[in-house]
Amino acid sequence: MNLKTRCRDTWAAVSLRGLAGLLLCSALLTVPAYGQSLAGRWAATGSALANGEVQKGIFVLRQDGDKLSGTMQSLGFMNNVTGKVTGAHFELWEVGSNDPKPFVTGDLVNGELLASQWGDRIVARRATAADEIPRPAYIQPPALHKVKFNGLATTPPMGWNSWNLFAEKVDDQTVRTMADAMVSSGMRDAGYIYVNIDDTWQGLRDAEGNLQPNHKFPDMKALADYVHSKGLKLGIYSGPGPRTCGSYPASYGHEAQDAKMWASWGIDYLKYDWCSAEAIYKNDELQPVYQKMGDALAATGRPILFSLCEYGMGSVEKWGADVSGNMWRTTGDIRDTWDSMMSNIEKQVPTAPYAGPGHWNDPDMLEIGNGQMTDDEYRTHMSLWALTASPLLAGNDIRNMSPVTKSILMNREVIAIDQDPLGKQASPVKDGDLEIWTKPLADGGAAVGVVNLGPAAVEATVNTSDLHVAHPVGKARDLWSHQDVWFIKNLYTATIPSHGTLLLRVRAQ
Ligand code: GLA
């Protein structure tokens, strides 16, 4: 089961999480004439995590006619749910999630709930007093202070992350072969340096409280050495709550110890995901909670890039740099669809003033090459991430890339826009179906991206005034056709396919 918290609307893959919050407590209202009520407290059991822990949860359900409501609790998580019953069948949705698919579906069979959550089987029986999920004690976060900048990420971080494609299927061998492919494909030389292990690497804490990796990662230090031998850096994942979003042990109460362990392995990057911290802390405690890990990383003496993942809550862009955050998510999880990709980038627009060398807004990882968008849409994805100076973390199988995927991810002229040392984040101006994003560049020139949001190709005209540069504009570079083009009487016209982007760079003269 998955105890995934809200916000991550896109939470496609991992099945294990949700169990957590299942059963609710009590309260029963009208029972439908055709069957037994689901109201009451249920003890749920899900499948085992890769560290051997069997997921347990408590669902407390209320039923009124065919309507359900209640809570699902699991270690570290508490989700409010609503749902409906049809005969013996029930469906539950997480309150506050935009996911159209039910959180849990199942049937009442012989007095048990036989359910599934994203493919994970859950069995729940009537709970007894002994079925309790312990709630971790509250640990007061530290008083606020400014954590010293770690000197990293002077341009937006670039690399690869396991989550979008592999989710819980990531292991040592996958990471090694991905590191090999980062080199052989040319990704490393194009600037993609970080190889990041996301959730599900964690084992159990030993008697001293040291969190060991699970069987998928037999020797993290050896893996880090291997990745480093390829001229790459290794990233890892945890969170400030007791559990990660995938229900694995996270760093709550072990911040300094975990940071020290990662440094001893040779870890170079930490993605720190809020997840179950939401069941312990209020949103006004986000900053001190992240600061605690910022301090712990600084105390290791190893430069470790700090990536905050809390989906843009609590105006993170205003304080992320103060906790030594090098990047912070501004949105829920991306999915490999046009709507999700565009919605993420548009949510990032208000954060533009806060991006700059050392600290970046992060609209989530790339989906380029994962197969559900068209090539034009993937070119738009890359163009927009570059124009907004967003981190470029590929999320596809680098070992197996089509020539088109390679040409998008490794378009060095587009990467140069992302990596421009001035570090400005473009903002859009709308013009019917067109969106015009302009980014000032360090050389006094600018990049302009014209996105066609409409269903058909359009002829679009860029005016030199769209570029906001101080000098006259003649020649421009089309960064997707790799050709020089000319403005005539301050205008340049081109046909842009549906969901495609015209991306031009103008240099100062
Ligand atoms: C959250 C994050 C994702 C990913 C998963 C892992 O949903 O937003 O990017 O790290 O957790 O469980």
What does this structure look like?
The chain is of the alpha/beta class and 509 residues long. Helix content is 19%, strand content 29%. α8 links the parallel β17 and β18. The N terminus is likely disordered. Alpha-D-galactopyranose binds next to loops.
Radius of gyration: 24 Å
Percent of residues in helices: 10-25%
Nearest-integer average pLDDT: 92
What's the main sheet like? 8 strands, antiparallel, barrel
Q: Which distinct ligands sit in these coordinates?
A: alpha-D-galactopyranose
Helical segment tally? Answer: 11
Dominant shape: globular
Percentage of β-strand residues? 25-35%
* Secondary-structure content class: alpha/beta
Structure summary, number of beta strands: 27
Low-confidence stretches: 1-33
Spatial sequence of strands, sheet with the most strands: 2-3-4-5-6-7-8-9
Distance between the termini: 59 Å
Gist?
By secondary structure, the protein is of the alpha/beta class. The protein has helices at residues 163-166, 172-184, 187-190, 220-229, 255-265, 286-300, 316-319, 338-347, 375-387, 403-409, 412-418, and strands at 23-24, 40-48, 54-64, 67-74, 77-86, 89-94, 104-109, 112-117, 120-126, 158-161, 194-196, 202-205, 211-213, 233-238, 269-273, 305-309, 327-329, 360-362, 392-394, 427-431, 434-440, 446-452, 458-463, 475-478, 483-486, 491-496, 501-506.
